[in-house]
Specification:
Blueprint lengths: L22 H26 L22 E2 L4 E4 L1 H14 L2 E5 L1 H19 L2 H13 L7 H16 L15 H4 L8 E4 L11 H10 L9 E5 L9 H20 L4 H7 L12 E5 L10 E5 L6 H16 L14 H13 L6 E3 L2 H11 L5 E4 L4 E3 L7 H49 L7 H24 L9 H11 L2 H18 L4 H16 L8 H25 L6 H34 L4 H7 L5 H9 L1 H21 L3 H10 L26 H21 L4 H9 L7 H10 L20 H15 L8 H17 L10 H18 L15 H16 L1
Parallel strand pairs: 3-6
Antiparallel strand pairs: 1-10, 2-9, 3-8, 4-5, 6-7
Length: 862
C-alpha cells in the first residue's frame, strides 16, 4: 500500500467531540477504581475468614477421608469417649419403658359390640314369652313350673348359639340366665278339676296351695293359665346381668387390653448384663373407678387378653356379690352359674384397646440427651490420627476437642487475628494482581477500564460470597460454581481477563476451604476449560457446551488430585462418588447461572455481547424493515457493506459480527430525509436549489439524526458509536469545492464542511469507514478491473490517513495493507457486467458518465 508519510502536525478537525482534559475528569475514574477495590477488599476478607467467632465457641472440623498427616496432641486434654458415651446413652434409652395409650375409639367399639349382643338377646323376649306360655299349657301337674320354664328357655337358647352373634358359645346353658323371665311375672297354671285361685296369688303361692290342698291326681293336664290374658313378662335377671357386665367390661377395657403379638412386636433385644427390668407403661385419658392416669407393668404382667379375661371374671364376681335376686325364679340354682353366664357373654366383646405411643421414641431420645458424656484423657504427645488412614469418628472428635482446649487456653483471639492478617495480605495481593493485569489484558480500552474492573470484582466477590454460604452450610467446596463466573467474564469482557480473574478466585476459594489445594486444581481447571470453550459466542447453546466441557475437565482434575493423595485403592471409586457428584452439580449450576445472569449484567454495565448483536442482525426488525421500504438503495448498500466490513475485520482479528451489524444501522439517519442522498434520488437533485453550505449541513445531519433514531429504538452503544464514527471528521469535498469556487475572496471555514465526528475509536468503525467509501466509490469506475479497484481503495485509505482519521483507533500499517487486500478482492468479485442488448447504447455519453461518477463519489462523503 502506498501511504504518504505524514508529519506530526494535526489538521483541524470538527469540533464538538474534542473536549479539553480536566483534572476532575482524570481523577474521577481513578477515585472510582480505588473505592471499588476497597469495597472488594472488605468483602473478600470477610468471605475468606471463617473463624469470626468469640473464644469458646464450637468449631468442628470436617475431618473425613484419608488423613494427610499424623496428628499428635501438643497438650493434655479431655475428649468425649464415643463408644462409652454411646453405650451409656443406649442403656438410658433402654430404661425408658414402652408406652401404650388406651384408645378411646377401640373402647367404644367393644362396648358397642356388647350392646348389640344384649339387644339381640332382648329381641328374643317375645319369642321367650310365647314359648313359656306354650310350654306351661302343655305341661302336667307332675312337672314343676321352674323346670317347664327352664326347658322352654333352653330350647330358644340352643337355637341362638347356632348363629351369630352367639355362635362362639359352646353351651346354650350360658344364655339361659339372659333369657329367663322373672318368677313373679310367670302366669299360674290351672289343672283339671281345680278351682281358679285368687287373682292376687302368684305362682309360688299357687304351688304352696297345691301342696296344702288335697292332692291332685297324677298327670293332671293344665287347662288354663291365670291370668288368662297375655301379659308381658319381666326380665329383671337379664337386666341385672346386663348392668354388671357392661360396668365390668368398661372397667377392663379402660384398664387396658393388649394383644400378645403387639407386645411381642414392640419388644427389643437387651444386653443380659444390663440391669434393666423390661417394663411397659399404660396411659389413660379417662379413668374409671379407682384407676390411675398411668400404670407401670413388668412386661411379663402386661394386661394381655388372657389376663384381661381373668380381671373381667373377678370384676363380675365382685359386682354381683351382695345383690341377690330375691323372690325370683332363678334360671340357675346358685350365683356361680349366673357369674359364669355373665362372664361368657361379656368376654365375647373383650378386645385390644392399647396402642403403641409414638412419644416413646421422643422420651428415649430425651434420655439419651440427658446422659452426661463420658470423657477420656489424652496425654501430651499421644497420637490422635495416623497418616494414610481414614479419619474415625473418635479421632475427629478428639482433634476438635484439642482445638477447643486451645481456645479455652485463650489462644482464640491470637489465632483469629493471625488468620485475619494472613487473609488480608492474600486478598490484597490478589486485588493488586487484578488491578495491574487488567490494563495489560484489555489493551486500548482505557474508557472501559473502570467498568471491566468493577465487573471482574463483582463476579469474584459474588462467587466468594456463595462459597461462604456453602461452607456455613457444611457443604463441600467442589460445589461452588467458579466456572460460571469465568464463562460470564469471557462473554462480557474477554478470555484473558476471564482466565486471570477465575484463577485468582480459585486461589481465594482454596483459602476459604482450609487451603485445600485440590479445590484450587479442580475449580481452576473448570474455569479455564469454560473460558477457552467460549471465546466466541454465536448462539446460546455455546454457553451450555462450555458448561459441559468444564464439568468433564473438572471431573478429570478431581480424579487426578484424588489419586495423587489417596493411598487406599480398595474402595476408592466408592469414596469418589459423592465428591464427584458435587463437581457435576457445580457444572449443572453453570447451565442455569450463566444464561440467567448474562442479560442483567449486560444492562447493568452497558456491555454489548455477540448474542445481543445476533439479535440486532435480524433483518426483519422495525428499523431495517423501514429502510428496505423507504430507502431501498441505502438498505442494499448497508447489506453489502456489512459483508465487506465483516470480511475485513475477520482478516485482522477484529470483531466481524460487530462490524456487520454496525454496517446495517450506520445510515439509518437517511430515513429522515432520503431525497438529499444521491442513491435515493429520483428525478431532480434537491441540492441544485441549495447553497453548498446548506447542502453540506443537510448531508452531515444524517449522522446526528441517525444517532437520535438509534436512541429512540434503544440500540446498544456500539451501534450508536458506529453511526457517529463511520464518517469521522472527514470533509464533504464535493460541496466544499463548490463553495470555494463560489467564494473566491476567502471567508470560508473548512469546519462547516466536515462531519461532526468523532474519529473512529475502534478498529471496527475505522474499517466501516474504509469499506463505506470504497463500496460507493468503486461503482463510479469505468471498466473497473483489479488494478483500478486497488488504486481506488489505496487512495481512499491514504486520504483518510492523511486526514488523520485513524489516529484514535488501533489500526497498524500491516492492518491497513490487509484491509486493502480484502476490500479489493471482495469489491472486485462484487462487480459484474451485463451484456448490451441490440437497441442499447454500448458506450454511455462521456458527460453522463462523469456526472454519474460525481454522484457516486458524493456517496462516499454524504
Amino acid at each position: 500500500m502506498r501511504l504518504v508519510r505524514l508529519g506530526r502536525k494535526k489538521k483541524s478537525g470538527g469540533g464538538p467531540i474534542h473536549r479539553p482534559p480536566s483534572n476532575e475528569r482524570v481523577l474521577k475514574p481513578a477515585l472510582k477504581r480505588r473505592l471499588t477495590l476497597l469495597a472488594a477488599f472488605i468483602i473478600l476478607v470477610i468471605s475468606t475468614t471463617k473463624s469470626i467467632q468469640p473464644a469458646g465457641s464450637d468449631y468442628i472440623m470436617d475431618a473425613k477421608g484419608v488423613a494427610m498427616e499424623t496428628i499428635y496432641a501438643d497438650q493434655p486434654f479431655k475428649a468425649v469417649d464415643i463408644a462409652a458415651t454411646r453405650q451409656a446413652q443406649d442403656a438410658a434409652a433402654e430404661a425408658v419403658p414402652d408406652h401404650f395409650r388406651v384408645d378411646e375409639e377401640s373402647v367404644m367399639e367393644h362396648l358397642a359390640d356388647f350392646d348389640e349382643r344384649v339387644a339381640a338377646l332382648a329381641a328374643k323376649r317375645p319369642s321367650i314369652e310365647k314359648a313359656v306360655r306354650q310350654a306351661l299349657l302343655e305341661s302336667t301337674s307332675d312337672e314343676s313350673t321352674q323346670s317347664v320354664v327352664l326347658a322352654a328357655v333352653r330350647e330358644v337358647a340352643a337355637a341362638m348359639v347356632e348363629h351369630p352373634p352367639f355362635d362362639e358359645i359352646a353351651n346354650a346353658d350360658y344364655l339361659a340366665p339372659w333369657l329367663a323371665p322373672s318368677a313373679e311375672s310367670i302366669p299360674e297354671r290351672i289343672f283339671e278339676g281345680e278351682e281358679h285361685p285368687e287373682p292376687e296369688k302368684n305362682a309360688r303361692t299357687s304351688d304352696l296351695s297345691h301342696a296344702n290342698a288335697s292332692p291332685l291326681p297324677k298327670h293332671a293336664q293344665t287347662i288354663a293359665l291365670h291370668p288368662s290374658e297375655e301379659q308381658a313378662m319381666a326380665f329383671t335377671q337379664a337386666d341385672w346381668l346386663t348392668d354388671i357386665c357392661r360396668t365390668s367390661l368398661e372397667y377392663v377395657l379402660y384398664f387396658g387390653v393388649i394383644d400378645p403379638e403387639t407386645l411381642k412386636a414392640t419388644g427389643r433385644a437387651i444386653d443380659a448384663q444390663t440391669p434393666v427390668q423390661r417394663e411397659i407403661v399404660v396411659l389413660r385419658e379417662k379413668q374409671v373407678a379407682d384407676m390411675e392416669k398411668s400404670t407401670r407393668f413388668v412386661r411379663a404382667d402386661a394386661p394381655v387378653l388372657s389376663k384381661a379375661a381373668r380381671l373381667l371374671r373377678d370384676h363380675i364376681r365382685a359386682a354381683g356379690q351382695g345383690t341377690p335376686l330375691s323372690g325370683s325364679l332363678d334360671a340357675t340354682e346358685n350365683w356361680s352359674d349366673l357369674h359364669n353366664a355373665a362372664f361368657v357373654v361379656a368376654s365375647l366383646s373383650l378386645g385390644e384397646t392399647l396402642k403403641y405411643d409414638p412419644d416413646t421414641e421422643a422420651l428415649r431420645q430425651k434420655a439419651r440427651d440427658e446422659v452426661v458424656p463420658i470423657m477420656i484423657q489424652y496425654k501430651a504427645g499421644e497420637q490422635i490420627q495416623q497418616k494414610g488412614l481414614d479419619w474415625t469418628e473418635q479421632s475427629s472428635v478428639a482433634y476438635n476437642a484439642l482445638i477447643e482446649a486451645k481456645k479455652a487456653g485463650h489462644q482464640q483471639h491470637s489465632s483469629f487475628y493471625a488468620m485475619l492478617a494472613a487473609n488480608s495480605i492474600l486478598v490484597a495481593l490478589v486485588l493488586w494482581g487484578v488491578a495491574w493485569a487488567l490494563p495489560l489484558l484489555v489493551p486500548d480500552r482505557g474508557d472501559t477500564l473502570s467498568r471491566d474492573l468493577s465487573l471482574s470484582l463483582l463476579v469474584m466477590c459474588g462467587t466468594l460470597l456463595i462459597a461462604r454460604v456453602i461452607v456455613i452450610l457444611q457443604l463441600p467446596g467442589y460445589i461452588v460454581p467458579v466456572a460460571a463466573g469465568a464463562i460470564l467474564l469471557a462473554i462480557l469482557i474477554n478470555t484473558r481477563v476471564a482466565a486471570t480473574t477465575s484463577l485468582y478466585t480459585a486461589v481465594l476459594l482454596s483459602v476459604l476451604c482450609d487451603y485445600d489445594w485440590r479445590i484450587l486444581i479442580v475449580s481452576g481447571s473448570m474455569s479455564l476449560a469454560g473460558v477457552f470453550s467460549i471465546y466466541k459466542v454465536r448462539k446460546r447453546s455455546d454457553m451450555s457446551m462450555a458448561a459441559v466441557k468444564s464439568t468433564v475437565i473438572g471431573l478429570a482434575a478431581f480424579v487426578a488430585a484424588t489419586l495423587a493423595t489417596d493411598s487406599r485403592f480398595d474402595d476408592l471409586w466408592t469414596r469418589l462418588g459423592p465428591s464427584a457428584l458435587n463437581v457435576v452439580l457445580s457444572g449443572l449450576a453453570c447451565l442455569f447461572l450463566v444464561p440467567g445472569l448474562l442479560p442483567p449484567l449486560e444492562r447493568l454495565f452497558g456491555i454489548t455481547t455477540d448474542i445481543q448483536l445476533l439479535e440486532y442482525s435480524d433483518l426483519n426488525n422495525e428499523v431495517l424493515s423501514r429502510m428496505a421500504i423507504e430507502v431501498p438503495a441505502t438498505y442494499a448498500h448497508s447489506l453489502m457493506l456489512g459483508q465487506l466490513a465483516e470480511a475485513a475485520c475477520m482478516a485482522i482479528g477484529a470483531n466481524g459480527l460487530l462490524a456487520r451489524v454496525c454496517a446495517y444501522y450506520h445510515d439509518i439517519g437517511k430515513l429522515r430525509r432520503p431525497e438529499y442522498f444521491s442513491e435515493n434520488q429520483i428525478g431532480a437533485n434537491v441540492h441544485d436549489s441549495l447553497s453548498p453550505r446548506m447542502s453540506a449541513r443537510a448531508i452531515s445531519a444524517h449522522v446526528t439524526e441517525g444517532a437520535e433514531m438509534a436512541r429512540e429504538f434503544h440500540l446498544p452503544k456500539p451501534l450508536i458509536d458506529a453511526i457517529y464514527e463511520h464518517h469521522g471528521t472527514c470533509r464533504i469535498s464535493f460541496f466544499y469545492e463548490q463553495a470555494l469556487a463560489q467564494q473566491k475572496h476567502g471567508g470560508l471555514l473548512e469546519e462547516d464542511f466536515r462531519y461532526p465526528g468523532p474519529k473512529p475509536q475502534s478498529r471496527e468503525t475505522a474499517i466501516l469507514m474504509i469499506c463505506d467509501a470504497a463500496e460507493s466509490a468503486v461503482r463510479s469506475l469505468k471498466n473497473p478491473n483489479e488494478e483500478r479497484v486497488r488504486e481506488l481503495v489505496d487512495k481512499i485509505i491514504s486520504n483518510r490517513a492523511e486526514d488523520r482519521q485513524f489516529d484514535e483507533c488501533a489500526l497498524t500499517l500491516k492492518d491497513l495493507d490487509t484491509i486493502e487486500e480484502v476490500v479489493t478482492k471482495r469489491v472486485q468479485t462484487g462487480l459484474h457486467r451485463r451484456i448490451a442488448y441490440p437497441n442499447q447504447k454500448t458506450e454511455p455519453d462521456e458527460q453522463r458518465t462523469e456526472l454519474e461518477s460525481v454522484k457516486r463519489g458524493m456517496k462516499d462523503e454524504y
